[in-house]
Amino acid sequence: EEEEEEEEAPPAGKDAAGGKEEGERKTKSFADIQRDNRLVEATQCKERGNAAFKAGKHRNAIMHYSAAIDLFPEEPAFYTNLAAAHYALKDYPNTLKVAAQALKLDPAAPKGHYRKAQALEGMGRLADAKTAYEDGLALLPASEQLRGGLAAVSARLEAQGNAEAAALAKLKARGGAAEQPPQPDARPPAAAGGAAGAGAHGA
Question: Do residues 149 and 118 lie in contact, with contact meaning Cβ atoms separated by under 8 Å?
């Protein structure tokens, strides 16, 4: 059997200080217990949100994730889950807002950067989305999710650039063709004059 360790007697003159420290430990312990209880309840809300999300009930998921945040606002994962639910409803402004809150709590949260970039991409802000992916990869170079997102948005930007270049070239070609007609238009007066002269000569 293990022997119980004897508690050391506090040094002389330290009784009051020791009592104070013990009181602080008890207070901190009580605060920790409260915090743990909040986290347990919040996690249960998150799990209900996950179940709703998987069932395609995204508005219900938002309700549960929001409840989790109300109970335990210190957890970044609750915000990224909420952002995912907003994104599923194509509510890109709220996706962006909630992702920013997650990143405020944890600047290195991979899903925070991912949701932010997704929101920007959904809003058509492709260049900003690319920057968001790059910012995330600068902190988390091993994130396949961020790397895949960056590749996809880069391809979209390239396709967009090619389409814009083709449209511009087509517009220039049309503009060049439109500029050419005035040249023949300048000739008829001279020709008309010549014809008039010829008519007068014939008369």
Answer: yes
